[in-house]
Amino acid sequence: MSLEQLTTKLTEHFQKEDYETCFKLLTPIKIQLIEHNLLVPNFQSKINPNDLQITMSILEIGALISINLFKMDEFSNYIIQLKPFYEINELNSRSNQKNKLLSLNLLYLLTKGDLAMFHIELENFQNFNLNVDDLEKDEFLSIPIKFEKWIIDGDFNKVNEILSKKNNFPCKEFNIFEPGLLNSIRINISNNIELVYKQLPIENLKILLFLNEISEVKEFIDQYGWKFEKNIVYFDKNELKFEDNINDDREIIKNSLIYAKEMETII
């Protein structure tokens, strides 16, 4: 089957959201791209920009397919392959998926808690003709940028509020990162809680971790080796910075966020 036929077939199945079939088609397509010296842009050869645009589109489809199949390593590889194409001005302007994919990559970094790489990626955006001052105005890129700021500020409530309203997202792939982002935030909160409090009622801990069921809270208790007895969670810390028992849920959240900000200042 020719490259043109394979590409047509890939597009048809992608539009049907038949991602498994698409994933199988990508391997023979990439082999043919290699044979035609199209998989990696060659600045020294006179390759038709239209051919490179086709390659870029295929790689973008591959990235979206990988996300929808939860193959995040594959997704990362496609982003790496796409970056040289996005650095070519003539191709950069032809992509209608660039900002979406770059924002999804930023969300992926946030789910891993890799804030250092997050900032490195932002700095590299200038290579893709993306003005840093305009990023917060972009419908795609503004989302991970706001999330990162709220996480750094310890304003986890805002992140959770946006994640709970799925219709706020400009594309369905953003929803795929909801569990990973919430889990990353909960781990962040948990690490702070066990340093701030000596004990908390399990209902208050459930609120702090944005969980719906007590059974979910108990999973975190087991994960962190906390003690649970008579509806109280004990963190076994030597120093107590706030009162042991606080019934006002808003005060608990406020104290936790103050601590997060203090930690950021120390770091």
UniProtKB/TrEMBL annotation:
Keywords: Proteasome
SUPFAM superfamilies: Winged helix' DNA-binding domain
Gene3D superfamilies tied to this protein: 1.25.40.990
GO terms for biological process, alphabetical: proteasome-mediated ubiquitin-dependent protein catabolic process
InterPro entries xrefs: 26S_Psome_Rpn12, CSN8_PSD8_EIF3K, WH_DNA-bd_sf
Protein name, entry field: Proteasome regulatory particle lid subunit
Gene Ontology cellular-component terms listed: cytosol; nucleus; proteasome regulatory particle, lid subcomplex
Naturally occurring in which organism (per UniProt): Pichia kluyveri
Start and end residues of each CSN8/PSMD8/EIF3K domain: 98-238
Keyword match Magnesium: no
Pfam families per the UniProt record, alphabetical: CSN8_PSD8_EIF3K
